[in-house]
Write a structure and sequence with these properties.
heterodimer; A: alpha/beta; Rossmann fold; 12 helices; B: alpha/beta; four-stranded parallel sheet; 50% helix
Amino acid sequence: MELFHASPWVPVEWIKAHGLEPRGLWYADELNLGPTRSSAGTCAFAQAVVRFAETHPEKPVLLTTHCDQLRRGFDTLADSVPGRAFLLNLPTAWQSPVAERLYDCELDRLSRFLVALGGYLPTAEALGKTIDAYARARGALLAQAEICPARGYAEAIARFHWEGPPASMTEECAAPDSVVRLALVGGPLPRAQWHLIEVIEKAGARVVLNGTEAGERSLWTGGSVEHQANPDADSVSSMRLWLARNYVRNCMDMFQRPNTRLYAWLKERLAARAIQGIVLWHYVACDLWRAEAQSLREAFGLPLLLLDAGDAPQASARDNGRVEAFVESLR
Amino acid sequence: MKPRKLTLVEWDQHYEELVAAGLHEPAYGGRLSRHLALEGDLRLRQLRFDNSPAALRLWNFLLTENQRLGEARASGERIVGTMKDLGTVPVMVYALSGLRAFYPDGAWWTPCLMECSDGLLRQAEAAGIDASFCPVRAMLAAFQNQEHFPIPDLLVCSTGSVCDDFSAISQRLERMGFPITWWEMPRRRAPEAHEAACPLPGGLTAPQCQVDCVREELGRIAELLGQLAGQALTSELLAEGIRQANQVRRRLGELRQTVYSCVGAPLPALEMLVAEMLAIHFCSDRAQALQVLTDLLEEAVARTKLDQFVIGEAATRIYWVNPVADLRAMNLLEDWGGRICGSDYMFTHALDPIPEDLPPLEALARTALADPMVGSTQDRARRIVADCRACNAEAVVVSRIPGASHSAWEGASLRSIISRELDLPTIELEIPSVCDAMLPTLAGRIQALIETSRARRAAVST
């Protein structure tokens, strides 16, 4: 059975070890970003996720609390897909001592949901192997970050979030030379919107850092579970706690408070990859990302292009023009 | 003195008469018009105010908050900004002497009061927070220009299951150089079968593990407050703080019961909205907040006994959901034939007494988790439905907050649940900070609602 989700901070190892297939919706053909809901102020991505759950009631979904849009979108599902939808509480105050405990409690609760869906309780050995397999796959993908073409890299990560390990590259890893080096930063960039990368490349730039939701920053590496300094390392509850700790400690996203960890992650890579400009990709009505535009400019002193992701399947002529002008100005 | 609503100019004349008759006022008393002259509160010219001395005191209390905060600072008190906090940390702050809680989010009404002459929204836009965000973005600019309130000595802000607008704006604030201590508020959920369930105020429940986390977070904040005050926040002090806060909550409860259950309205909707707001942060003075509410209650009781109402019994009984960014909307509702008979201004949990028979931090944690905005829309709707039944509401208005991330999803869901459960006419509308340009639209929607309700009332009575 598959379990569909839309956050890289969902514990996919835990789901997989319960015998279910975690599927990151960024790669789903059925994620329809077209407009339906009339209420103004709703995010097209959250709408698409909710619509997916509504139109596929046989497919269980897992949403997270990290933004208002998805959290409240979940509320609209409660009656329509009873027992098939799960809301995972992602802690935001990561410096708080309760964050890891909250996440661990959620893993415990998620376990019962997975068993109710037909999964089974994992053995310590199976869980350990699953954790390590995911760690290896993330590591392999991370190693390709600087040498892969951006479109192929986005696809490889999305496929990993869809299929799980091992990670595979779909294209030969040889990034094109280009004058302008850009970071693409922001919220979810599902398959239907990868054309943005092509638009950027056609304009003469190269995305050398994919900092979108399911991009490079979703590839956390917490080391091997075998190396944890815990005498009960082989028990499932101990591994669960390890997993919770690692997700909380390695999560870097804009919703965290403070969001300094993401800024530190960006700072290191923007400098190391000699990035000349930032394209900030955000959905209309996504306050969490939109509010950061000015802070990103101030923090890194780089030109920033704010691109609104709407509900259109293709980049608009306006977006094309803005990207072209942005790249041109950086040459 | 018969109840009626006065313009600002009429209030000045009325004020002279009251003073001549021996009006006794607190230190923050005086003519209402001085707030226009000295602070540029232009919106006061458009508002209609209740003519009671109790209402005068309420308005003066509200409109002098920043001056009172300045005086407190000058006298050596430390100010704690309690952000995205609808009634939890202020209770802790006031349990310690020398500390004063302040609610910076309240700056969202400044553009309304000053009819945007403050420039706060424009300034927020220049700081990267544009009109796609809720009017609480005014707070950001108020911190920046430091003209509207003293900068608090400590800023604490709840995060987690809170609205994205505020979360994003407060993060921007921190990046602009105002350090914030964040505390986690999980999204409240119902306990599952195997979990220890914990009763919350308002008839809700949550798993004990969530209550434990919130209690631990509040304990962390308590330590910080103790350091700031130079005095530990002991259980005894906090228990007394809760007892005092409950006095305010109970007084407000009596006031709401008196006004909303009456056949006519002994006090106007606008004054009731402001009075309700006192429950969450005491408008920076807990003792005075209690006195203000006591005066209003006495006035409402006296008027009720005399069958004297500011809005008559013919008015349609409307239950109002969410606070309005423009205070004038409350006047307009009454002008168009409605009256408020019940409300959920997003902090119904602050209307319920905090349990006094529990360890104080546990009691506060349970109360914080009962916040309607941290749980599901269904939970919130359940309380609204029960309230509407209890107060014999004839119609419901779900008022959207412009740009607010929660309103887009929640409004439609609330409307749908309320319509299904109650068979009451329900509309959703949006009130910007200055709603004058939208008057025809607002009038059309509210009058249509009222006409529908009247037709239903007439059908029932025949």
